[in-house]
Amino acid sequence: MSHFATPCHMAKSVRISDSFYALVELESRLEHRSIAQQLEHWAKLGMTSHQAASGTVGSTSVLAAIETTRRLDILDVQSGRLRADALHFIPRSLAKRARPDFSKPFQKG
After folding, report:
1. CA–CA separation, 12 and 71 (whole Å)
2. N or C: which end of the chain has fewer CB within 10 A?
3. How many angstroms from the chain centroid is the CA of residue 63?
4. Does pLDDT of 2 surpass 50?
5. Residue 107 carries which DSSP code?
6. What are the helix (H) ranges across 31-108?
7. What are the counts of helices (DSSP H) followed by strands (DSSP E) for the chain?
8. Per residue in 38-74, pLDDT tens?
9. pTM score over 0.90
10. Residue 47, Cβ neighbours under 10 Å: how many?
11. Distances (CA, A) of 16 to 2, 27, 41, 99
12. Which residues make Cβ contacts (< 8 Å) with residue 39, sequence separation at least 6?
């Protein structure tokens, strides 16, 4: 069996500008992701946006990327490389501090 057939995390080098790297680094801290995870997240958002603009939302490539990411996340959690709460859209620490806003603009009629 070829070593290319196994799903693994192989390091790859990509050249990006210093300013873009700084932006990725800042956003990754804010989103509690690694720099690689942040780049992958933005790439998937870009793929989805591109597919939406071309009228092919739900294409097999986007669905495959989403499913692949989900499966890799599961493997990372099962192997102990990642904590499950690291995958939450809103970090637990932020959610615990959040308070509902019942001010006038958010009330019904």
Report:
1. 20
2. C
3. 14
4. no
5. S
6. 35-53, 60-79, 92-97
7. 4, 0
8. 998 888 888 777 767 776 655 676 677 777 777 888 8
9. no
10. 15
11. 31, 15, 16, 39
12. 24
What mean pLDDT comes out for the span 82-103? Answer: 81
Q: Which residue has the tokens 């599961």?
A: 74
Q: Would you say 35 and 27 are in contact if contact means Cβ atoms under 8 Å apart?
A: no
The answer to whether 62 touches 51, Cβ cutoff 8 Å, is: yes
Tell me the C-alpha distance between 53 and 59, whole Å.
Answer: 12
Distance CA 70, CA 79 (A): 14
Q: Alpha-carbon distance 75 to 40, whole Å?
A: 17
Q: What is the DSSP letter of 16?
A: -
